[in-house]
């Protein structure tokens, strides 16, 4: 409370006392102190609540931060273990696929505490915050890494030091294949004199030239005896404890700067001499199988993928086979960014692509690289790769439109990656630091794809031009690339591979020499690799299903990658496949490949009138009932029965003319097979029915009548009525021409689209399957038409039945058989008998035990027109076995009577006011 608020009541009280001289006015002076005290109390209470809430929020935030730090630590620890898993893992994995899969010359000195590289910003104001900052910067139980080329000295008792150094050497030679390491520089006079390091000479790495990394190790009794040149010094205290000391060096060498040890103590790994003997034997056997360790004069006829080491480099390196000088490695990032592969049928082109993909994903997670496979030979070549978690799709030419849809969505992937790089403020995928995995698109039979989809040529040229920065790489394989690939596309493909081709010209076009045309057909998988014009002969490795299964099992754990294209819409869509947020109004999903998403389709009655067009068995009837259920209104569902369709549309048209119809509950009128209804009604009835239907479509929403009409084709008068609909759903059409004429995009034509699939609002859509409707009993049966009235042939006493019939004798026989006396029948087709009562007298007498039946054919009634007019004004008239022309001629009305189903035996009952309905003469 401010001083002004405290003093104001006192001043006002004094002023009032001066004016009124009343002592009561001085009571106002107490308001100031009372208000100040109350404000102080309330402020303290409120401050306490806010302080407790802030403390609870801070504690929760610290706990969430601790969980994030722990998760980051675990990720970092797994990453360090992948780089240097240790001696025990190297020895245990000798018989597996992990041998020679390392990417860098690094070893683990033991498990200890290292710098995590995590920095929590802000000023630590409390003990908890300070402890969390310190804990985040420290990574416990992690490998302490060192690079042997910088020199590693091991100090301690000779037996212990040499067992420890054997562990470092085992790590190094199990990770890197021959050709990547030169013979080591080893300082250990006593050990060399006793032959304890002779096993190094039997390693395949020590044979041949001295190219590659030169590791440096030394064994010393004490740390003070270590000469200059060793950056890391390990002092063994006991078999289970050691200390590490790092001397200053270049930032990029020595122990990794981002994970330097924060404590001197580590837990070392020791390896016995017997273990290295087995280690040497296994490595020598594997190298001999690959022809490594000595110069070979000829390439092997077959190479197994399981015997290849992982390619070096953190990019997209892959070991694909053998050259005369060792392992053949390709790197799409360093040698690409795109590649062209040529080869005739049977040359091993598909095997090359499978091996290349397997080599690229080996040892990498789907966070680093994903692969999209496009095969225009039916998909058999890439089928084994589909199980890899890195493969985000296998597109084939088996299903119409699938390839076009998948490849078109690549444009959306380009836009998505550009937007993500812009959000990160990165110029390319390298600066994004793993936020985007590299995407490799492998196309087999590229020429066939361009022939079938020529519009994709510019798309692939655009990907080739922008792919390097966006992390998208192309591997395009074909039998004859000359004349198929555009210059703009080929100019961005410096990496060329050619298996056997048919002509020298094809070979020169791909690799710049004639060598590929001279490869033997007896050696599939023999290939010429050209990188920036330098050609090398390679024998491509064969990848088996067991090799791929091992890759799947060894793949690092990672969340499912984001796919660059969506799966095609399912052939059968159930409500269980919809998202949980789907409402009852959702009737299907729409395909949006250019946005890489699907959209739910909702049906609201306000979208009516709606027309559904589709060929037979395309799902029209199911969709009609689905829309009726989703509308939430009272449904009136009618089929192709002409009586039902006539009555339903007539009732709806009458409601549209009723000024009070809008106050009645709204209803949904669903008419199935409208074109079949028109065909069964005939020309005259069809014209009237379509006129009434047009009125319902035009004026129905205002009267609360929402119509959905299904038909196979818009023909005759039906075309004008259906043209009043707001929207049209196009299911499968009999031909592409009818599909386009109905207003749908030509590229969405598919003669194999499943039932319930079609086009709505220019999008490919799939509606819910019929089994979903089984829970709705009210919609299963079609709405029946108005039942016919029953008119007795034997009228009650004092009554009369007036009948116009084409066969009056048959009706008279039925009436007499039902008990009508002969004197109660007046047959106008028979000549009058003198002395018998006239029809007028019989109708006025009323003394007969029954009523009177007056019957005649249309001609007889036309001859007694005055009698017909008199009787029609008093009694309903039955027309039995007549047609609408007879009704119109006798009633002098232009209104069509309702149609009759053939063979139903029904007729029409015409009332005095002109109304007509169906009826039957009941005996």
Automatic annotation (TrEMBL):
CDD domains per UniProt: TrwB_TraG_TraD_VirD4
Keyword set, alphabetical order: ATP-binding, Nucleotide-binding
Domain FtsK: 325-508
Keyword Chloroplast: no
InterPro entries hit by this protein: AAA+_ATPase, FtsK/SpoIIIE/SftA, FtsK_dom, P-loop_NTPase
SUPFAM superfamilies listed in its UniProt record: P-loop containing nucleoside triphosphate hydrolases (SSF52540)
One Pfam family cited in the UniProt record for this chain: FtsK_SpoIIIE
Top-rank taxon, per record: Bacteria
Binding site for ATP: 343-350
Protein name (database record): FtsK domain-containing protein
Organism of this sequence: Gryllotalpicola koreensis
């Amino acid at each position: 409370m401010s001083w002004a608020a405290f003093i104001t009541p006192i001043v006002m009280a004094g002023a009032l006392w001066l004016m009124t001289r009343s002592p009561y006015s001085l009571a106002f002076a107490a308001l100031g102190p009372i208000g100040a005290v109350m404000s102080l109390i309330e402020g303290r209470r409120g401050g306490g609540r806010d302080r407790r809430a802030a403390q609870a929020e801070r504690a929760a935030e610290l706990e969430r931060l601790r969980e994030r730090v722990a998760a980051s630590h675990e990720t970092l620890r797994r990453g360090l273990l992948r780089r240097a898993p240790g001696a025990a893992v190297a020895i245990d994995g000798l018989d597996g696929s992990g041998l020679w899969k390392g990417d860098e010359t690094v070893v683990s000195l033991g498990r200890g505490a290292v710098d995590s590289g995590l920095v929590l910003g802000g000023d630590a104001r409390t003990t908890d915050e300070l402890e969390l900052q310190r804990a985040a910067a420290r990574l416990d139980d992690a490998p302490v890494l060192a690079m042997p080329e910088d020199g590693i000295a091991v100090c301690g008792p000779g037996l212990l030091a040499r067992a420890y150094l054997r562990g470092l050497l085992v790590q190094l030679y199990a990770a890197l294949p021959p050709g990547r390491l030169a013979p080591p520089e080893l300082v250990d006079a006593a050990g060399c004199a006793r032959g304890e390091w002779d096993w190094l000479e039997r390693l395949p790495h020590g044979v041949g030239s001295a190219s590659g990394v030169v590791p440096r190790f030394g064994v010393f009794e004490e740390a003070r005896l270590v000469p200059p040149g060793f950056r890391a010094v390990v002092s063994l205290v006991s078999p289970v404890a050691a200390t590490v000391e790092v001397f200053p060096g270049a930032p990029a060498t020595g122990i990794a700067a981002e994970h330097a040890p924060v404590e001197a103590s580590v837990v070392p790994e020791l390896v016995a001499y017997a273990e290295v003997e087995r280690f040497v034997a296994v490595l020598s056997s594997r190298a001999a199988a690959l022809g490594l360790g000595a110069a070979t004069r000829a390439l092997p006829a077959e190479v197994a993928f399981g015997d290849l080491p992982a390619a070096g480099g953190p990019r997209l390196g892959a070991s694909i086979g053998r050259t005369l000088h060792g392992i053949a490695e390709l790197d799409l990032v360093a040698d690409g960014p795109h590649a062209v592969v040529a080869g005739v049928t049977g040359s091993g082109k598909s095997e090359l692509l499978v091996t290349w993909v397997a080599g690229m994903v080996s040892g990498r997670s789907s966070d680093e690289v994903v692969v999209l496979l496009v095969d225009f030979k039916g998909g058999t070549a890439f089928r084994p790769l589909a199980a890899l978690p890195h493969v985000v799709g296998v597109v084939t030419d088996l299903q119409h439109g699938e390839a076009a849809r998948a490849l078109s969505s690549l444009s959306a992937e380009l836009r998505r990656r550009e937007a993500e790089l812009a959000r990160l403020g990165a110029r390319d995928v390298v600066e994004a630091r793993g936020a985007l995995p590299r995407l490799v698109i492998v196309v087999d039979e590229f020429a066939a794809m361009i022939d079938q989809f020529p519009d994709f040529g510019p798309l692939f040229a655009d990907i080739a031009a922008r792919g390097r920065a966006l992390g998208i790489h192309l591997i395009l394989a074909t039998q004859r690339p000359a004349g198929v690939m555009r210059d703009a596309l080929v100019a961005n493909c410096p990496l060329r591979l050619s298996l056997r081709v048919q002509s020298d010209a094809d070979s020169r076009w791909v690799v710049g020499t004639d060598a590929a045309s001279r490869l033997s057909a007896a050696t599939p998988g023999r290939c010429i690799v050209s990188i920036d014009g330098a050609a090398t002969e390679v024998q491509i490795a064969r990848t088996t299903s067991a090799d791929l299964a091992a890759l799947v099992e060894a793949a690092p754990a990672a969340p499912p990658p984001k796919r660059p294209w969506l799966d095609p819409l399912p052939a059968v869509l159930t409500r269980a496949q919809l998202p949980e947020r789907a409402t009852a109004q959702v009737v299907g999903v729409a395909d949006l490949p250019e946005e890489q998403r699907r959209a739910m389709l909702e049906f609201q009655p306000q979208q009516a009138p709606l027309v559904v067009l589709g060929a037979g068995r395309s799902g029209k009837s199911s969709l009609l009932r689905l829309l009726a259920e989703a509308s939430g209104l009272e449904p009136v569902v009618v089929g192709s029965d002409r009586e039902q369709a006539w009555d339903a549309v007539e009732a709806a048209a009458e409601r549209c003319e009723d000024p009070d119809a809008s106050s009645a509950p709204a209803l949904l009128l669903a008419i199935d097979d409208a074109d079949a209804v028109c065909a069964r009604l005939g020309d005259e009835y069809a014209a009237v029915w379509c006129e009434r239907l047009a009125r319902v479509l035009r004026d129905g929403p205002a009267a609360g009548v929402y119509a959905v009409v299904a038909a196979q084709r818009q023909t005759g008068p039906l075309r004008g009525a259906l043209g009043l609909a707001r929207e049209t759903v196009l299911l499968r059409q009999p031909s592409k021409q009818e599909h386009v004429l109905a207003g749908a995009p030509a590229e969405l034509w598919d003669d194999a689209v499943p039932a319930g699939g079609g086009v709505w609002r220019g999008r490919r859509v799939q509606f819910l399957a019929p089994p979903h409707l089984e829970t709705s009993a009210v919609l299963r049966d079609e709405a029946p038409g108005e039942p016919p009235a029953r008119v007795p042939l034997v009228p009650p006493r004092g009554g009369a039945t007036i009948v116009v019939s084409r066969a009056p004798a048959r009706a008279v026989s039925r009436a007499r058989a039902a008990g009508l006396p002969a004197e109660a029948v007046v047959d106008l087709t028979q000549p009058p008998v003198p002395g018998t009562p006239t029809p007028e007298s019989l109708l006025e007498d009323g003394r007969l035990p029954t009523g009177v039946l007056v019957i005649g054919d249309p001609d007889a009634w036309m001859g007694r027109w005055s009698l017909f007019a008199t009787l029609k004004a008093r009694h309903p008239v039955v027309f039995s076995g007549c047609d609408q022309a007879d009704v119109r001629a006798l009633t002098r009305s232009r209104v069509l009577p309702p149609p009759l189903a053939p063979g139903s035996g029904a007729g029409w009952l015409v009332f005095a006011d002109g109304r007509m309905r169906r009826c039957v003469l009941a005996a």
